Amino acid sequence: MIHPGPFVSSRVLQGLDAFLARRNVKFSDVVTTANLTPDDVDPQANKTIPLDFVISILDAAALLTRSPCFGAEWSEAYDPADAGVYGYLLMHSSSVREALAVTVRYLPLIIHPVAIELKYEADAAILSWRLSPTLQSRSTQYLLFATGATIARLRAVGGKDLDPLRVELPCPDMPCKTLLK
Question: Which of 57, 91, 87, 88 has its CA nearest to residue 74?
Fold first, then answer.
């Protein structure tokens, strides 16, 4: 089957098996529930896979762990070092401003194509990125993961008290509003 994209590095699933095991869920069960094969999503292979596969994996994981906030929870456990060059550059950014610039420049190494933009206003920086409308409407868990991972990485640079002024996620129904406040 030919996938139109976007595509993402399989490294975004690195460590997910251990994270699921701590919740008594097997990665293989998640893969089966997502109607995929282990070869489709092997994090160790460090290959480019359709984002659709990752969306399916995270949705299946949310279902099997009975956690509507699974994507956000996984983002907190995800090791930025597993994001390759992008993660390395983020971890070694000297400021939040530099980390934001790294995100804009190198996020396409992780997911592509992606529309990403950084704007500065009087007292705020606005980082925005969008998926295609067909993916955006059904990717709640992935959006929770990607947003949470971005905030966690910026906090690693700017300090744990760094809080975004606002986070906007185009999800039809946010499953875990209290977690995100």
Answer: 57
